[in-house]
Design goal:
By secondary structure, this protein is α/β, with parallel strands linked by helices. It has 21 helices and twelve strands. α2 runs antiparallel to α16.
Length: 576
């Protein structure tokens, strides 16, 4: 629990606090998941840089040291900071040069060193600039939370690069002892970096406060080329926190604003005070929602129902000819169950119940557009975050941001199809722990499939993208000869430039949902994420498959399922 809390605090520290506006660098006037992801990557980099610089300035001003000087009675006075280069060797602990496990982390630490060097000569740390890494800033923030947090035992790995030979190691181990640390593991080898004699990996357990003091002391040593901290429990901002259970989606509601009635004078509802107040009321209802709550009922006004009726009847006329078969089947089911009717808007709760019964998907209300990472993460749990507000009545066939009509008519029918639901979930699972660059690519794939995708059906091109099925103007454009159709290949689709000033010039056509899933899985396997995940529908938990034990458990479960499948096949083959 402590690790999870720390991870969430670290996430908040680097959270995006800028609104999605052109003034803040947003690349377009109309919201899209693709532009969101690109904007988020840019802002996250800027935010991280600001946080790192502030922390480094604090370290140089010695204000940080004042906050962490004591560690529950294990205080080490500043004047006793260890001068490693002046002490005599102490090699009571034997260290073998043949160990090679340091190689596993060489790439990461070398990249960090190169990143620091690439900032330019003017920004290189001086003798008193400790060049704090992201891990160290995470640690410093944890230390400053409370005396209890400061005294918490932290497991960590230190990677030190020795300039003056292995004799310096004894002095480092003595420094760890001075700061009341416990050495758990030591490995060394001759370095492959010019100007460095040995690389050493040291795993230690010590209080957070003392660990930070140790790092500061080591950074002042002239005998070290560099020193890097690799914290355990995976709470580094370099490996983004992501929800492991459906309840943690309560922490994934980082609402981002760009094109809303209160903020943009071009919004259809900007001058409509009643509409703006209505949007605020519905947003507050969504903000109050927590995991396990029933989805709040919205009493839609006559004006909102009129807007729904106009769009619903248009889609009802166009769907039989232009929508894919899976959409048409689900649309008919929704009509048969009296969820899709023209005299009232469906409630999210009844729609959620319908989806759960058909594919296991469910809904949770969202106050507006989320960050790309948060939105995609919810799909991993077969949860779709849906708005409940309705577009302005003066613009019934176009909305500058997704509204409940777009969600209901565009997304919900296909989320009731088992194959499409699985494809959506796999996009969400692929996003968990992905880098910012990979989130951009996943968002682009999502945009050109789930939002604006086309598929083949009996030699004809049909629409399955929600953005097409809920906007008849672009739907007619997408199936016309005025645009280019390309075969869906995730690696190509993921880097396709997107523009929102007019209809897309290029659309991607899938042979089928099964073909799209197969291609997507093969592409995801090339992503840089160092682990695999799976969703356990019984516990609503995402499991990280990063150990032999977890893999063995999964194999046992699969063997049970295969046994049921084999028995079913044998029974089907029996003669009557």
């Amino acid at each position: 629990m402590m690790a999870v809390a720390a991870a969430q605090k670290n996430r908040e520290m680097f959270a995006i606090k800028k609104s999605y506006s052109i003034e803040n660098g947003y690349p377009s006037r109309r919201r899209s998941l693709v532009d969101d992801a690109r904007f988020e990557s840019l802002v996250v980099k800027q935010t991280k840089q600001t946080v790192l610089e502030e922390a480094r300035n604090k370290a140089n001003d010695a204000s940080l040291e004042e906050c962490i000087q004591q560690a529950k009675g294990e205080h080490v006075p500043a004047e006793q900071n260890v001068e490693l280069q002046d002490e005599q060797p102490n090699l009571e602990m034997a260290v073998e040069d043949e160990y090679v496990a340091v190689e596993d982390i060489e790439t990461e630490t070398a990249n960090e060193i190169n990143a620091e060097q690439s900032t330019g000569d003017d920004e290189r740390p001086t003798k008193n600039d400790y060049g704090l890494t992201e891990d160290e800033i995470v640690l410093a923030n944890a230390v400053s939370e409370s005396p209890e947090a400061e005294a918490t035992i932290q497991s960590a790995a230190l990677v030190v690069r020795l300039k003056e030979g292995i004799s310096s190691l004894g002095r480092i181990l003595k420094a760890i002892e001075t700061f009341h640390g416990s050495v758990q593991h030591v490995e060394s080898r001759q370095s492959r970096i010019e100007g460095v004699d040995h690389d050493v990996l040291i795993k230690v357990d010590m209080t957070r406060g003392n660990l930070l003091q140790l790092i500061r002391s080591l950074r002042q040593s002239g005998s070290l080329s560099s020193m890097n901290l690799l914290t355990e429990n995976n709470i580094s901002v370099k490996a983004p926190w992501f929800p492991k259970h459906a309840s943690e989606l309560d922490n994934c509601n980082h609402l981002m604003t760009k094109y809303e009635p209160d903020l943009d004078m071009n919004h259809p509802g900007f001058a409509d005070k009643v509409y703006r107040q209505r949007r605020k009321e519905i947003a507050e209802i969504a903000f109050a929602f927590k995991y396990g709550d029933p989805i709040p009922h919205i009493n839609y006004t006559e004006v909102e129902v009129k807007t729904w009726r106009s769009v619903f009847r248009t889609v009802q006329d166009l769907a039989p000819k232009h929508a894919c078969a899976e959409y048409r089947v689900a649309f008919q089911k929704l009509q048969d169950e009296q969820i899709f009717v023209d005299h009232r808007l469906p409630q999210l709760q009844e729609m959620s119940d319908f989806l759960r019964k058909n594919t296991g998907f469910s809904l949770r209300p969202a106050a507006g557009l989320l960050t790309a990472r948060d939105f995609l993460a919810s799909l991993a749990f077969r949860i779709f975050q849906s708005t409940q507000y309705v577009r302005h009545v003066n613009s019934p066939y176009h909305t500058p941001e997704p509204d409940t009509i777009h969600e209901l008519l565009g997304h919900m029918p296909l989320l009731a199809d088992p194959s499409f639901a699985q494809f959506s979930q796999e996009i969400g699972l692929a996003s968990l722990g992905a880098s910012d660059e990979e989130i951009e690519k996943l968002s682009t794939v999502y945009w050109f499939t789930v939002e604006f995708g086309l598929c083949k059906e009996h030699g004809q091109v049909k629409a399955y993208g929600a953005g097409l099925l809920s906007a008849y103007g672009e739907l007619l454009h997408a199936i016309s000869d005025k645009c280019e159709h390309r075969a869906f290949e995730p690696a190509v689709t993921a880097v396709q430039p997107y523009q929102d000033q007019e209809y897309q010039p290029i659309y991607y056509v899938a042979e089928s949902f099964e073909d799209a899933k197969d291609k997507f899985r093969r592409w995801v396997s090339t992503m840089s994420r160092p682990f695999e995940v799976r969703f356990n529908p019984h516990t609503e938990r995402v499991e990280i498959l990063d150990s032999v034990d977890k893999l063995e458990t999964l194999v046992q479960q699969m063997n049970t399922e295969i046994l049921h499948l084999t028995n079913a096949i044998q029974k089907l083959r029996r003669p009557f």
